[in-house]
Amino acid sequence: MKVLWLQAAGCGGCTQSLLGAENRAGVLAQFADAGLELLLHPGLSEASGDEALALLQAAANGELPFDILCVEGALLRGPKGSGRFQLLSGSGRPVIDWVRELAARAQHVIAIGSCTAFGGIISSGENLTDACGLQFDGDQAGGLLGPDFRAAAGLPVINVAGCPVHPGWVVDSLLALALGAFSESELDAWQRPRSYTEQLVHHGCPRNEYYEFKASAEKLSDLGCLMENMGCKGTQANADCNLRPWNGVGSCVRGGFACISCTEPGFEEPGHPFMETPKVAGIPMGLPIDMPKAWFVALAALSKSATPRRVRENSRSDHPLILPGTRKGAPK
């Protein structure tokens, strides 16, 4: 399968993340082993300048068949729908015109990252550039291609959302398409691959013991749970970041930073500072998914009353002050 990759308005962070994929031979070698050929990527391909433009034009005209269109970055529709806030270098044409033409030729279209899926960071604030995603404008269906868009193979845009996207999510999605093992049932309500959104960031979090006892961090660098005071949305965010961390070791919460739910539409404007938890009467407004408020309040009170001294003291420190005890005798 032949892949075209375009970069629209964004930071290029999703490509940087992809290059950190764990395969020792490199992600391009992994693609080649799966029968995926990267025809063009603005940062990875040898073709550039007129040669790259000729390749794109041939693909848009139908003279160069390809299978998968990957788009990275938000789509700028401004000013006044012209798209001229972002022109493809050397072509004099808006990027959104290229995306529309190429999407009409592709068997599959993939939005790489939350900017391309929903508008993301680029669409925040006053959104003077009229940035949007491929098939969503924030949490509203529509976007550049419209809510009814289907690629030639019958699927809507596949939103591999994240800011940046985890390399494994991109690789898994492309390999599944190459194997013919991807159907619309594999997508969730936001058209994201369920392979990673059927989990919560909370699953596998190294701070789960602190969460269970509601032993909360009070400042940056504390070891405790980041939900109660530090803005963490890990119990609400659909992603498997802590089950398959970046490079096998890293995730936001493992690095001491709250989960900001970057795979979700609208994450860029939570209405409060990222590192603060909004509360009403001392109760966090953002409760774990599917958990009634009354249950959470009752559970939190019970958990705090049973917090071991080790957990309580360690939660307010940047290193363990008290180590777990050692069992005497055989486990029962």
UniProtKB/TrEMBL annotation:
Cite the residue spans of the region called Disordered.
307-332
Question: Record-annotated residues binding [3Fe-4S] cluster?
Answer: 241, 259, 262
**Gene Ontology MF: a single term:** hydrogenase (acceptor) activity
Provide the Gene Ontology terms for cellular component: [Ni-Fe] hydrogenase complex; cell envelope; ferredoxin hydrogenase complex; membrane
Classify the source by domain of life: Bacteria
Q: Which reaction is this enzyme known to catalyze? A: H2 + A = AH2
- Enzyme class, first EC level, given as a word: oxidoreductase
Q: Which GO terms describe its biological process?
A: anaerobic respiration
Q: Which residues of the sequence carry a binding annotation for [4Fe-4S] cluster 1?
A: 11, 14, 115, 163
Q: What is its EC number?
A: 1.12.99.6
Q: Where in the cell is it found?
A: Cell envelope
Span of domain NADH:ubiquinone oxidoreductase-like 20kDa subunit: 11-177
Compositionally biased, Basic and acidic residues: which spans?
Answer: 310-319
Q: Does the keyword Transferase apply?
A: no
Chief localisation class: other
The UniProt similarity line reads: Belongs to the [NiFe]/[NiFeSe] hydrogenase small subunit family.
Q: Subunit comment for this entry?
A: Heterodimer of a large and a small subunit.
UniProt-recorded name of the protein = hydrogenase (acceptor)
Q: Which organism is it from?
A: Candidatus Accumulibacter appositus
